[in-house]
Here is the input.
Amino acid sequence: MKEIVLPLGIILILTVGAAVGFISCFRLHRAAMSEYREATERTARNQEQLNTQLTELTTRVAAIEQMLRSVG
Here is the structure.
C-alpha cells in the first residue's frame, strides 16, 4: 500500500501544479488581450480625431490658398 501512495501523491502534486499553471497562464493571457483591445480602441479613437482635424486643416488651407489667389 505504501508503494502506491507515494507515486500517486507525486502524480497528484504534478497534476495540480500543471492545472494551476495553465489556469494562471490563461488568466494572464485574457488580461493582456483585454489591455490590447483597450489600447486598440484608444488608438482608433485618436486616429478618428486626427483625421477630423486633418480634414478641417485641409479645408482651411484650401480657403487660404483661394484668398491668396484672388488677391494676387
Q: What stands out?
A: The mean pLDDT is 94. The CA atoms of residues 22 and 28 lie 10 Å apart. The chain is about 95% helix and 0% strand.
